[in-house]
UniProtKB/TrEMBL annotation:
<feature type="transmembrane region" description="Helical">
    <location>
        <begin position="165"/>
        <end position="183"/>
    </location>
</feature>
<feature type="transmembrane region" description="Helical">
    <location>
        <begin position="33"/>
        <end position="54"/>
    </location>
</feature>
<keyword id="KW-0812">Transmembrane</keyword>
<keyword id="KW-0472">Membrane</keyword>
<dbReference type="Pfam" id="PF00990">
    <property type="entry name" value="GGDEF"/>
</dbReference>
<dbReference type="InterPro" id="IPR043128">
    <property type="entry name" value="Rev_trsase/Diguanyl_cyclase"/>
</dbReference>
<dbReference type="InterPro" id="IPR029787">
    <property type="entry name" value="Nucleotide_cyclase"/>
</dbReference>
<feature type="transmembrane region" description="Helical">
    <location>
        <begin position="119"/>
        <end position="139"/>
    </location>
</feature>
<protein>
    <recommendedName>
        <fullName>GGDEF domain-containing protein</fullName>
    </recommendedName>
</protein>
<dbReference type="InterPro" id="IPR000160">
    <property type="entry name" value="GGDEF_dom"/>
</dbReference>
<feature type="domain" description="GGDEF">
    <location>
        <begin position="227"/>
        <end position="349"/>
    </location>
</feature>
<dbReference type="GO" id="GO:0052621">
    <property type="term" value="F:diguanylate cyclase activity"/>
</dbReference>
<feature type="transmembrane region" description="Helical">
    <location>
        <begin position="87"/>
        <end position="112"/>
    </location>
</feature>
<dbReference type="InterPro" id="IPR050469">
    <property type="entry name" value="Diguanylate_Cyclase"/>
</dbReference>
<keyword id="KW-1133">Transmembrane helix</keyword>
<feature type="transmembrane region" description="Helical">
    <location>
        <begin position="61"/>
        <end position="81"/>
    </location>
</feature>
Amino acid sequence: METLRNLLLYGGVEPDVYRNCRDELRKENRAKLVFFLSIAIFFLLIAMMICCMVKSLAGGFIPYVGALAGCLALLGVTQSFPNKHMVLAICADGFLAVCYLLGIYLGCFIYADQPATCFHILAVVLPMLFTRPALWNILRTALYEGVFACCVVTFKTPEVAAMDLMDAGLFGLMACVISTYYVRALTDNVVARCKLKVIAETDLNTQIPNRNAYENHMHEYPLRCANSLSCVYVDVNGLHELNNTKGHDAGDVMLKIVAQEMTKIFGRKDTYRIGGDEFVAFVVDTDLRHVREMMQTLEQAVEAHGYSVAVGCATCSAGGIQIKALIKQAETRMYDAKDEHYRSRGIQH
């Protein structure tokens, strides 16, 4: 039962693994939605042109116009709210609904005297477009196959209706089986990519994001802030001396403690180890006074373990943030703090 549950709700993987990859799944689904909407708009325009030129197909013009309007609206909403997960889910369901309903309308009303081949093809293909839980695909397929069957019984001749009902059952079952297998394969692929990404972007010693992650995500921070962005640059004092006197294991312990205290204060996702003894953290939409309090808390927490850090900070208001200049300013202030640390102790470094 547990295996079946995971297959239907989590693409065949463990629930925790699925949740850890949810952002990547949403990102992939959004890219697919924009692509499929664009392709649908293109082909609907072609279909409308053909309907205008071929009189025997003129009956399909109005439903194609309706489907085109729906796809244009969904594409506009998707592009307007790129980071709203609920909007993405609604737009994806809306796109599938447009396609299903177009197939039903064409098969049962416009070409009622012919088998609804278009709908049966859509019924098989549509559940495989997005990486969604298999259970929702099965329920959605059952819903639209049910609507189709009702329309067939009501509006089509008995001879054609019998064939369409048989095909609805056959292709509906086929859609459920194939989409479940396909979604599992897609989910496994995304999970594998997520694992590789975690390995590539995680520092093995401290288990926080490394320089690869820092380089990949630093340019996202100006887009995330509404008021201000602060960069906190941290350098561990005495790491090289500790390595030379007590060995690299002792130095690794020091780095782990600093990383641990930084993640407590700044959060794991916004803290990076970018070099041997250097760390960077970003603070979004927090006033400078509070950021300085966070820096002081970090210094005190590290000192409680018998170590010390040099900390520099730079803050910039939202709008036109030059991220590299902000980081450089924080780094310069960190070096000023480091010089003061050694100077106050009469140490040359």
